[in-house]
């Protein structure tokens, strides 16, 4: 008899991901490279016990610039993403959106720094470009999942534009607006992170004081950041976005209108990105193409291949950690499981973990554990797991309030009522975060882990943009492949784009 195919079920998908991670463990560098991690951790804890706000003289300016880059970048990315979402059925548009979001904002910042320097334009575009791709994907899927029945009953002869404006867009507009507000929170995280490459945001201040060993100032910056994120539900309102956008432009203009060196811009786009063997070479000479083949071998075989393997290893191990944190952590928000005080404490823990940018968490973990894959896996798993736990926890709290009066509480409620009902959304979120984890795994290479980001950062530091672009193209291809597999899994399990709970996932503030 022919061999039976593995059935595409929710349980089998989970077992497959766990099995892949187990197989990859022997190939992962999970050693604790720091000889005394507890000493580093104790210094960091001591800083939190005595935060030194006075040491950070430019804290107010860093906060304003962090918000300005975030608001301007998200606004520009949202507008571009909505335009791309309208044509999301086009393969070319989907490919463009995938390319944009596959390149992390830190990579965009490093690339844009070459022609435009550390300017406001670099910071805004570094956020807007990947966010345009993210908005295009999410908005496109929200439009696809909108109820089609209103459009079906329109009179014959109704134009496509009228049908879209009056029958489809109104049904998707509310979740799209709420998702846009959610992305502002994400934009603040991205804005903080791009400070690590020299832009004057909170990340720049954090990196500077960490290098100086001033942990009290580090704690002051992190506490300010958590306060900023923790209060966003009170000060972020859709009606105020035009005002915030105008204020962001004013703050960014205060940096000064630095005119780009156009000669440098032209050189970057006409010379630096061209493969070195082709610059000024005779394209009809066989020796030119032999040199190009040797050059590609160095980039693809010696750098891209090991970087891609390391990136995949970190990604798959992170997925397992993320799943454990998400499934175990969402109960921390359900009062009928952990009690009122426990839910409040759990909310604080998850806010800290999901609000701290993955790069920043990896940076902190690296200081404690030393350079290896372990800090990256822990940081990415905690960050992404906390995001999913937060989303599932809100839905779990809502479900727990709709159950019968004699429904169980505590672990019985968690194991017999909530987990079975939320397992589908959990898988949908996990598949959706899969490609995000891949690009995050690539970017932690800047910190010294031998993923694709390590080789990209090295190439940019050596002003070899031609090599960097090839390595980034490999990152884009890998992310696109994961996006394709993720879509197939979600479609095969009938999970939908967001597990059928998109409206609850981004509740209106």
Sequence-ordered SSE layout with sheet pairings:
Layout lengths: L9 H15 L12 H13 L9 H27 L5 H12 L2 H12 L3 H26 L3 H4 L7 H34 L8 H11 L2 H16 L1 H4 L5 H13 L8 H11 L13 H44 L5 H21 L2 H12 L3 H28 L9 H34 L8 H10 L3 H28 L9 H4 L4
Helix pairs in contact: 1-14, 2-10, 3-6, 3-8, 3-12, 4-6, 4-20, 5-6, 6-8, 9-10, 14-17, 14-18, 14-19, 14-20, 15-17, 15-18, 16-17, 17-18, 18-20, 19-20
Subcellular location: Cell membrane
InterPro entries: MetI-like_sf
Keywords: Cell membrane, Membrane, Transmembrane, Transmembrane helix, Transport
Structure description:
The N and C termini lie far apart (58 Å). The chain is globular, with a radius of gyration of 24 Å. The protein is 74% helix and 0% strand. The chain has 509 residues and is mostly helical. It folds into 2 domains: 7-38 and 300-509, MetI-like (MetI-like fold); 52-268, Orthogonal Bundle (MetI-like fold), CATH 1.10.3720. It is a multi-pass membrane protein.
């Amino acid at each position: 008899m022919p061999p039976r195919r593995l059935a595409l079920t929710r349980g089998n998908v989970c077992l497959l991901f766990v099995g892949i991670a187990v197989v990859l463990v022997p190939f992962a560098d999970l050693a604790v490279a720091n000889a005394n991690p507890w000493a580093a951790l104790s210094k960091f804890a001591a800083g939190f016990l005595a935060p030194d706000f006075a040491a950070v003289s430019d804290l107010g300016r860093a906060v304003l610039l962090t918000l300005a880059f975030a608001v301007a970048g998200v606004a520009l990315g949202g507008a571009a993403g909505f335009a791309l979402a309208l044509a999301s059925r086009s393969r070319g548009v989907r490919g463009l959106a995938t390319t944009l979001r596959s390149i992390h904002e830190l990579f965009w910042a490093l690339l844009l720094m070459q022609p435009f320097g550390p300017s406001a334009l670099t910071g805004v575009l570094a956020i807007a470009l990947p966010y345009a791709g993210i908005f295009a994907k999410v908005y496109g899927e929200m439009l696809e999942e909108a109820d089609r029945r209103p459009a079906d009953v329109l009179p014959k002869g109704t134009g496509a534009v009228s049908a879209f404006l009056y029958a489809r867009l109104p049904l998707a507009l509310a979740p799209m607006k709420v998702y846009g507000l959610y992305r502002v929170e994400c934009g603040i995280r991205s804005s903080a992170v791009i400070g690590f490459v020299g832009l004057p945001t909170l990340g720049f201040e954090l990196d500077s004081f960490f290098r100086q060993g001033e942990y009290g100032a580090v704690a002051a910056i992190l506490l300010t950041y958590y306060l900023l994120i923790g209060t966003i539900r009170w000060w972020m309102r859709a009606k105020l976005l035009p005002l915030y956008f105008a204020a962001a432009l004013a703050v960014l203009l205060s940096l000064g209108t630095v005119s780009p060196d156009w000669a440098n811009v032209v050189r970057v786009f006409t010379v630096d990105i061209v493969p070195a063997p082709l610059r000024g070479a005779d394209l009809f000479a066989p020796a030119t193409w032999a040199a190009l083949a040797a050059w590609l071998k160095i980039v693809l075989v010696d750098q891209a291949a090991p970087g891609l393997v390391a990136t995949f290893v970190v990604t798959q191990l992170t997925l397992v950690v993320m799943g454990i944190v998400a499934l175990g952590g969402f109960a921390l928000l359900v009062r009928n499981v952990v009690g009122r005080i426990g839910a409040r404490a759990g909310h604080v823990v998850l806010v800290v973990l999901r609000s701290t940018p993955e790069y920043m968490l990896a940076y902190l973990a690296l200081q404690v554990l030393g350079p290896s894959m372990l800090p990256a896996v822990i940081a990415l798993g905690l960050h992404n797991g906390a995001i999913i736990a937060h989303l599932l926890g809100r839905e779990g709290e809502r479900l727990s309030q709709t159950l019968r009066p004699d429904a169980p509480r505590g672990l019985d409620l968690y194991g017999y009522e909530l987990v079975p009902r939320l397992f589908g959304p959990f898988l949908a979120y996990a598949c959706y975060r899969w490609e995000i984890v891949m690009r995050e795994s690539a970017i932690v290479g800047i910190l010294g882990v031998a993923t694709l980001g390590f080789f990209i950062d090295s190439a940019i530091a050596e002003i070899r943009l031609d090599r960097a672009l090839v390595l980034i193209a490999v990152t884009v291809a890998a992310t696109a492949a994961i996006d394709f597999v993720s879509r197939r899994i979600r479609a095969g399990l009938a999970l939908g784009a967001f597990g059928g709970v998109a409206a609850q996932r981004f509740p209106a503030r």
